[in-house]
Write a structure and sequence with these properties.
372 residues, mainly alpha, Growth Hormone, Chain: A
Length: 372
Amino acid sequence: MSTRSIGAAGATALVVAHCAGMIDLVALPVWVGALVERFGFEPQQAGGLATLFLLGAVIASAIFAPRFTRLNQRLVAVLGFALSAAAFWIASTQTAFGPLAGLHLVAGLAAGSALSMIHGTIGHSANPHRLFAMAGIALGLFGIVYMGAVPQILIARGGAALFQVFALVMVLAAVVCAILMRNPQDLHDLPTGKWRRSVWLVIIGVSLMTFNQAMVFSFVEVIGGTHGFAHEAVLAVLIALGVVNFLIPAPLAALLEKRLDAHRVTQVGPAVQAILALIVTSVAVYPVWAPAAAFFVAVQIFTHTFAFGLLARLDPTGRAVAATPAMLMIGAALGPVVGGALGQNLGYGALGIAAVIVALLSIGFFSKASRA
């Protein structure tokens, strides 16, 4: 693997670009909320627009990741972020659903292609596990800043500012990648055959975990209300969740990299996620519910950091980790839809039961990967 070709400046570019490409993870609640409150869309329409961005990213990642070694990674990243910025800037001038739908899809396709190049290049760093953990820490900090600043900007400047902020973030990523990013070297010497069975098993396991997270986390605020908790109490948990995500899972994953077996972490992670999902969906005792909700997302971040490092070892070409956007965003796109259907028809307790079933499937795939 070409591990020495990225450098400190290149690593900085990758971390910044990771934050831009993964903006949906921190922005989704404000994003959908602004589309409802400031653009007047129905919740289903607002969710649909965000889903189009996510599906665009999934499609692009599925197309670009297998071709990672044959592309100019830096060029694709710069062009992808620049095109996404242009789409979001044009979106800031629109108010109708049709144009916004098309622009969300274009922005997602562009950002997903860029992000695949970023994650594939992280896979060629000297320590993919640690660099991905550092990117996770940066994303957590970005999330705290975003949640603190953007709602105030929307109050001051209106709904169009949402897309202007997105565009500026994408422009920053494009500029940083153009100046600092370096392509991995000697990729043409690497084999480009089919992925090993273990690679596919880990990819499916990660995708199932991200689906579980999105299915439950999308409705944490609603579930808190159905449990009878005050809105302020639920909001306090969401704030705590942002702080927890910044301070704990990625730094802990970096510290424990050599002490924990990655295969074991990927098998235990979904089980812990399922237990927390059951508490979040079924326990109406606030002192029990609040910590479970606050740490729910952290389990996914911690586990996925080990899974990322594992995939980088299993597939030295970087193509598997280049598919990270597809793994993450397919869950983010499908989870809320399934969670909404279950909650609406069977009650939110059904989400906990579904989470246990999905977690068992995820553990099964991760376990098979450890033996493949």
